[in-house]
Every structure is written in structure tokens, then in C-alpha cells.
Specification:
The protein is of the alpha+beta class. Helix content is 35%, strand content 27%.
Length: 647
């Protein structure tokens, strides 16, 4: 008999050799019908894998990310089989699952694939899927594995196998198809009910431009046709919300080839939006005891060598700037933390002075590859809402929790309500990736986990996602389209204080090393604004909108009254403008709606006589004729709903 522990910590006993699906059926036949993947003792297995030892078993359905990954990985096998049948002689390489889908890289030889072929590939995949072929794993000796692919003249699989240890090589079979595979599949192909080939692209073998370029075929799949339709509709909505499209339409930012790739230019409306975000956070930071600092855009190379950033990220930075002085080299600032360490080091500190909280909206520069640049989400110059807290070890827990409060305030004020906290820790199997003492790493990781627990955060622990100098708490936010983004990060660092020899005098009159907290609720203003644009579709919270209202006069006769209304709104601290163009009111309203003005104010003879304004809300809701004072109250009440005072 073996003991199987389930996620709810319940323990069940079974005869040795029971499968994961057998356990699922014992729990419930209805539940078992939905199980598509499993993990045993933290290793992904097939649902048909026999269990022969005690262990922890997790059963996954389509609702779980792990279940989706197995579903999409299995779909890539079906895609590969379809390609072999439709394009004889193709050579397969790799076909993993990715977020929202899968791909397969293939050498098509004399064949080619375009979007005209997508339907034919989809039909063949569904034909195969309907056969309900079981996915079966088997071990293969290295010699036999090599022979199979050498006989097929598939140099890609041969290269993969040559790098594997004999005794660790497995194949997956379904129907007449076999493929080199580590495992992790759904029970059978029949679960795949809907497929869509999304695109084709070129991809160098193993990502090396010196290797042959293969054809990468992207696809997605679902257990129901309805879910595929919903996903495709979501993609169409995402296109409408693309921040690059909205940024241009709303006049927020632009790019110039002459200025350089990945270097955004902020237009007046965008600059005002940035400034409001900065002032919003500065106000909260002031209440929380932060002091603003300013550091230069460059620093000596030695500064980043001391911090360890140059050794770790030197290749991703702009190349050093050589001055006329012999041996003098500067870098465009790739991060703010070394500068803040030097600010701390500029004065002697006592334990009574701590914590010191230095904040800066500091612009940094990183040489991202041109192919990776994407609008505002991946740029070469960006501004971080950076702050570094220097505190005693005893203050660490309290300071960390205060930063969590600040991040939650930012999210709440900007409409990000659906998020998960991710505790990013070391990969213990790769100690060479990290700097610093093991004991300090353990202290830092435990501090983050304890803070997340005490704050009641919904959190997960991810191994290998820590920064090279310390663990961190990342906030993974879901936007209005259900996409996940990493927004806001808090990091605990014992290493930079060591590298910069930072000290404070303790109550024992001895020198001690402070602990450093890195934090950035926005992350970068550029990326944050891009995500906020797509999350809101350009309909920002009212307190953040560049203009909160636009005033349309019915004719030239009422332009003076429109200006009077504008002055009155400005006295109420409402941002507005007038539209005096010689266009019909209908056209002006349509354009005001397209430009996302939250409120449209119309004035004419009736409004001038009664000293009122006629108000229409974005989206078409007619509020009616009211006074400016009443309108001001509507605005203030709406702002109070989202923008609460930071405690």
C-alpha cells in the first residue's frame, strides 16, 4: 500500500501501481472527467503514470495554468503530426507550450506555409484529434533514439539527443506519430475540440543567427469551440486597446527614428499625465516619510562595478563613454540604486536616524535589442519611481509591510483590483547566479514571506525569479482583458550595503550594516502608462484624465458664455477646454467621445439664460441641465470613489 497526500492535506491509501487518473476517479467520477494533467512529488507526470511510492499528488483541470500548459503542449504534438502528413519530408525540432498557446519550429525544406494554409492545417489537426488517440510515454536508449532521427536525416533532434544522458530519454507516442519528449500530456487527443493557427514567423535554430532559420508556426487550442471564439474576440478587443494605437490617437507620446529606437517623446498631454502620476505618488510618499533626491543620468563605470551590475548586465547597457581623460569611463545610468547608496554614504548615520527613505523619479538607460523593443512596454530609456530604504534589521519587517500598503494604495487608486503577489526567491541549484551570503539570503526571503502572510496577500513562491542581489515581492496584475502583467516590485537587499560599505552607529556605539529595500510601485512610468492605457482603453480614472471635460457651444453667439463656464470650472480646479471650431455639434460630440473626454458640456441660449450647463457623460448618459457648482460636486464625488487619501 502507498499513501497519497492531496492538496487539502488529506491522505488516501491505495495499492501500489494506481495511476493519477485512478486517484481522480476515486475522488469523484465527475472530477476525473475534467482531470487532464498531474504532478507527483513536484514532478509533472502523465495521468496514466503508475504511482509506486508515497507522495504528494496534484490533479489539474483546464482551469489550472498547469492543465492549460499540458493541453497546449499536447496540441503541439498534434500540430507536428498534421505537418508531417501535409508536408512530407518536414523536419521537426521543438514544440513547447507558451502563454495562451503553443508553437512548433520546423524545417519545411522545399515547402512553404502562409496564412492561406492555416485552415488546411487546422482541419487536419481536428481530424487527428477526433481519433481520441492516447498519449503514451516510453523510455528509449540513446543509441536507438539517435538511430531513429539519423534515419530521418533530422539533424535537429539528433543534436538535442546528443546533449541528453542515456537513461533519461523518453518518447511520446500517439496514433502513428512519435516525438522526443519529456512528458506532460493530456489523456488523449479527443479533449482538443478547437484549434487555431495564429501566425508563422522565422526563428533561428536554438536562437542563434548563425544557424539555419526555421519556420515557427504559432497556434492555440481549447476544449470548447465557444472558448476559442471568446479568445479571438478578446484579441480583437486587445488590438483596439493597443497602447501604441491609443497613445497616438490621444496625443500622449510619439517616437522618432532620428532621436532613436526605444526612446519615447512625450507630447504635452502625455507629459501632463506623467506629471499627475508623479505628483500622486510624491504626495503619498511624503506622508510615508520619503525624501526626494535627484541623481545624474551618468555615472563612472567603477560605480556599477562596485554594485555588481556591470558584471551582470554590462552587455545589456549602452557602451561606456570615454572622456578625454586617460582611463576615465562613464555609463549612461542603467539603474538608480548605486547612486542612492552613495547618497546614504555621504553622511554619518545613527540608528536614531533610520530608516532613511530616498525616492527619485530617475531616468535610466538600457540597450535592449531592437527586435525586443515594443511601444512603451520595452524601451531603452525609461523613468523608474525608484526608492531605497536603509533601515536596521529590526525595522525590516515593519518597513516592508509599509511598502506593501503603498503599492496597494497605488493599485486601488488606478483600478487594478485583480492581482497575485509573487515571492521571487533563489534557485538553490544555481548558486552561481547570485551574490552575497547564504544566511542573509535566507533572512531576506523569510522577511518577504512573513510580510506577505501578515498582510493577507494571495501569494505564490517562484524559485529562480529573484534578482541577483536579493529576493523580491512582485505584484502580478490582471488587466481588464485577463492578461497578467508584473507591476510593482519590492526587494530586500543585504548585499549592496556590504559592497558599498554602508554603516550606521548602533545603540552599542558600534558600526552596523543597514538592510536595503528597493521598491517601485509603478516599476517604470512608461510601462505602467502603457498597461494602464490598455487596461482602461484610454478611459483613465477621472482624477488622472488630461482634460476632465470639453465645452461645446451651439454657435458663435455663445462662445463668450462658454469661456465664462471654462473660467468657472478652472476656479473649481476642473480641467477643461473649449471647442470653438466651425463644425456641427453632432460632429464635435462624436470626436469628443473618440477622444475619451469624461464629460461633454453643451452651452446655448437656454444655458446662458439660466446660468447652467447641459452635461453628457462619456458613453452617452445624459445628466441634464445643472449648475457649475453641482457639476463640480459630481466630479469631486467621482474622484473620491477612486482616489482615497493615503494613510
Amino acid at each position: 500500500m502507498i499513501k497519497i497526500t492531496l492538496p487539502d492535506n488529506s491522505v488516501r491509501e491505495y495499492d501500489s501501481g494506481i495511476t493519477a487518473m485512478g486517484v481522480a476517479k476515486d475522488i469523484s467520477e465527475g472530477f476525473a472527467r475534467n482531470v487532464i494533467s498531474a504532478k507527483f512529488n513536484n514532478t509533472t507526470i502523465e495521468t496514466t503514470t503508475e504511482l509506486t511510492t508515497d507522495g504528494d499528488l496534484i490533479l489539474y483541470t483546464w482551469k489550472d495554468d498547469e492543465g492549460k500548459a499540458a493541453f497546449r503542449h499536447s496540441s503541439s504534438h498534434v500540430l507536428a503530426q498534421a505537418l508531417e502528413q501535409l508536408y512530407p519530408g518536414v523536419k521537426l525540432s521543438i514544440g513547447p507550450s507558451i502563454e495562451n498557446g503553443f508553437y512548433y519550429d520546423v524545417d519545411l525544406g522545399e515547402h512553404s506555409i502562409s496564412d492561406k494554409d492555416f485552415k488546411r492545417i487546422e482541419d487536419k489537426m481536428l481530424e487527428i484529434a477526433r481519433g481520441k488517440h492516447e498519449f503514451k510515454m516510453r523510455s528509449v536508449s540513446k543509441a536507438n533514439a539517435l538511430k531513429l532521427y539519423e534515419d530521418q536525416s533530422n539533424e535537429y533532434k539528433v543534436e538535442l539527443i546528443e546533449n541528453l544522458e542515456d537513461g533519461t530519454i523518453t518518447f511520446c507516442d500517439h496514433d502513428t506519430f512519435t516525438d522526443l519528449c519529456r512528458g506532460g500530456h493530456i489523456p488523449h487527443t479527443g479533449i482538443i475540440k478547437a484549434v487555431k493557427i495564429m501566425s508563422v514567423a522565422g526563428a533561428y535554430w536554438r536562437g542563434d543567427e548563425n544557424n539555419k532559420q526555421l519556420t515557427r508556426i504559432y497556434g492555440t487550442s481549447f476544449p470548447k469551440q465557444k472558448e476559442l471564439k471568446e479568445y479571438l474576440a478578446l484579441l480583437e478587443e486587445a488590438k483596439k486597446r493597443d497602447h501604441r494605437k491609443l497613445g497616438k490617437e490621444l496625443g500622449l507620446f510619439t517616437f522618432s527614428q532620428k532621436v532613436g529606437q526605444g526612446l519615447p517623446l512625450w507630447l504635452p498631454k502625455g507629459a501632463a499625465l506623467r506629471d499627475r502620476l508623479e505628483q500622486f505618488l510624491k504626495k503619498a510618499q511624503k506622508k510615508a516619510g520619503y525624501e526626494m533626491v535627484v541623481t545624474p543620468h551618468i555615472g563612472q563605470k567603477e560605480l556599477y562595478e562596485t554594485s555588481g551590475h556591470y558584471a551582470k548586465y554590462g552587455e545589456d547597457s549602452f557602451q561606456p563613454i570615454n572622456t578625454p581623460a586617460e582611463g576615465e569611463e562613464f555609463l549612461l545610468k542603467p539603474m538608480n540604486c548605486p547612486h542612492h547608496c552613495e547618497i546614504y554614504k555621504s553622511g554619518p548615520w545613527s540608528y536614531r536616524d533610520l530608516p532613511k527613505r530616498f525616492a527619485e523619479f530617475g531616468t535610466v538607460y538600457r540597450y535592449e535589442q531592437s527586435g525586443e523593443l515594443h511601444g512603451l512596454t520595452r524601451v531603452r530609456g525609461f523613468t523608474q519611481d525608484d526608492a531605497h530604504i536603509f533601515c536596521t534589521p529590526d525595522q525590516l519587517d515593519d518597513e516592508f509591510k509599509k511598502v506593501i500598503d503603498l503599492v496597494l494604495y497605488v493599485f486601488g487608486s488606478l483600478g487594478f483590483e485583480n492581482f497575485t503577489a509573487q515571492v521571487s526567491v533563489r534557485d538553490l541549484s544555481k548558486p552561481e547566479k547570485y551574490i552575497g551570503d547564504t544566511d542573509n539570503w535566507e533572512k531576506a526571503e523569510n522577511a518577504i514571506i512573513n510580510a506577505a502572510k501578515e498582510k493577507g496577500l494571495n501569494y505564490v513562491i517562484e524559485s529562480g525569479e529573484a534578482a541577483f542581489y536579493g529576493p523580491k515581492l512582485d505584484f502580478m496584475v490582471k488587466d481588464a482583458l485577463g492578461r497578467s502583467w508584473q507591476l510593482g516590485t519590492i526587494q530586500v537587499d543585504y548585499n549592496l550595503p556590504e559592497r558599498f560599505d554602508l554603516t550606521y552607529k548602533g545603540s552599542d556605539n558600534e558600526s552596523h550594516r543597514p538592510v536595503m529595500i528597493h521598491r517601485a510601485p509603478f516599476g517604470s512610468l512608461e510601462r505602467f502608462i502603457a498597461i494602464l492605457l490598455e487596461h482602461t482603453g484610454g478611459n483613465f480614472p477621472l482624477w488622472l484624465m488630461p482634460e476632465q471635460a470639453i465645452i461645446l457651444s451651439l454657435s458663435e453667439k455663445y462662445e463668450k458664455y462658454a469661456e465664462k463656464v471654462l473660467n468657472s470650472l478652472e476656479n473649481h480646479e476642473i480641467r477643461a477646454l473649449t471647442d470653438h471650431r466651425n463644425e456641427t455639434v453632432g460632429k464635435k460630440i462624436r470626436e469628443a467621445e473618440m477622444n475619451k473626454f469624461p464629460y461633454i458640456i453643451i452651452v446655448g441660449e437656454q444655458e446662458e439664460k439660466s446660468n447652467t450647463i447641459s452635461v453628457r457623460k462619456h458613453g452617452g448618459e445624459d445628466i441634464g441641465s445643472i449648475s457649475v457648482d453641482d457639476f463640480s460636486e459630481i466630479i469631486n464625488n467621482e474622484i473620491k470613489k477612486t482616489l482615497k487619501s493615503f494613510q
